[in-house]
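Chain A, query sequence.
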Amino acid sequence: MITKRLNKVYFLGIGGIGMSSLARYLNTAGTDVSGYDKTQTVLTNKLVDEGIAIHYEDLPENIPIDVDLVVYTPAIPSDLKEFIRIKELGLPLLKRSELLEKISSDHRTLAVAGTHGKTTVSTMLAHIMYQSKAGCTAFLGGISKNYSSNLLLNNKSEFMVTEADEFDRSFLRLHPTLAIITSADADHLDIYGSHEELLDSFAQFASKVKEDGILLIKSGLKLKLPERRTYYYSITGNADFSIKDLKLIDGFYNFTIQTPQGEIRGLKPDLPGLFNVENALAAASAAWLSGASTEEIVQSINNFKGVRRRFDRIINRPDFLYIDDYAHHPEELRACLTAVRKLYSLKKITGIFQPHLYTRTRDFANEFAESLSMLDTLILLDIYPARELPIEGVSSKMLLDITPLDSKMLLSKHEVLEYLHNNKPEILLTLGAGDIDQLVPKIEKIFT
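Chain A, predicted structure.
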């Protein structure tokens, strides 16, 4: 195992959701872990509480030069002074995906890929397997509300569940025993250039599945698949795994899953929205194919509490509902808003959206405008740049201007809080993948 050879590891961008789970894994194994991140967050504070030293200034003198390995995320800027110095020193260097490849090579890996849906599906699948007799270790792309962590550990289990991230083609490092592909909508065009190139990359990921492994694909995806044992799932049509007896009861769906060899009955997850029925179908199907029993699947799905920032109901009162969601792609926004509209058709919905990346805003401006027009009131924050420099003519003001709504405004974070002090929506959503989550506790305080 790689952990036996690593006494000291340094993480560049340790506060990222994927990086932090790897840091936790090594720290739990007894490795001396430390790292840098540009922003102090709730997650970095948790890592510090767990004994990991973190600093927030880009200072090369903070680099521990006696490390066995430096791990970095491709999301860090290439001109980061610490990154430049690490390369000058010739320290051993791996991308996050390369370290995950080495760790997962010792396991039967269940990998979940897709431009959206993968975090909820992988977290739900991990919960089922972790609670089953087989057990699992899991690296998650979000914080599981069942465990308040993005890492599950079972050193006795041969199974490992992980997200397979298409950003920077990271998922091509994995060699899964079973792979799920939930979606392949156009995204990350700054990396891929075109939707066709993205689809080709998903096909390459499918070919990474071991020859005796399994592919589980959402029906309707137009992918060139390799010769593998392949199953399809669908909530709307005929497939190897499908939904039966779907009923909406008190705002939540009850249903049965038809498998190739019988039914899984009595499913009623505490998660609203048809998209979560589809997520549950994918997770349950993968668990069934991996040997989990019907009883284990039903029990785990029905007590699954969800993932933070995935349709996360922060306040749920008869007079006021506040949901926080990670949606940062037009299709994710559409799925989230469709679910809210179906459940609360008579109420006015206010959404605070923080666009993520200049390139994504530019590439999907019209699609964003169409999805955001499902709101009654839109509040836009400035674009969260992440790793990018500004692009001339691309701004939240541009997006605001093309969104066909009468009630819309562009506000700073401070102005948002002032607005909410003076205006109480019936339903409030915070949406986006940047640092909008830092507003959540402040908004919660206003309304509680």
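Residues 133 and 250 are 32 Å apart (CA to CA). The mean pLDDT is 95.
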